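Notebook entry, structure prediction.
Reason for the run: the old model in the group folder had no record of what sequence produced it. Starting over properly, with the input documented here first.
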Amino acid sequence: MQTDATEVTREIDLPAEPDEVWDALTRPELLEQWLANDVEIEPWDGGGIDVATEEGEHRRGVVERAERPERLIIHWWEVRPDDSTRVEFRVVGLPAGGSRLRVTETRTTLPMAVAH
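New structure, fully documented this time:
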């Protein structure tokens, strides 16, 4: 679902409990299975994230909010920290088991004070 030109939201139901989904979003060895081949993350408010792919893409960022296991928000950028993407992950347990993961990406401007 696209709400405007700068925001995209996707949602998927997963056969995993919220804690397992949280681990897949915050543990480097699990992120390296689906996101990039080299990941460092400090999954707490104000922590850092550093992601590098085999194709040469390199992103750095800041964890804005970490609320285990429901919500993770990061700001990250490839070249210029003032031109970033805000990514919000929302995890909700489903009554029949499993989880729903909602990912909202928003192109944004990160305040330079935070970017350093």
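Summary: The chain is about 15% helix and 50% strand.
The old model has been moved to the deprecated folder.
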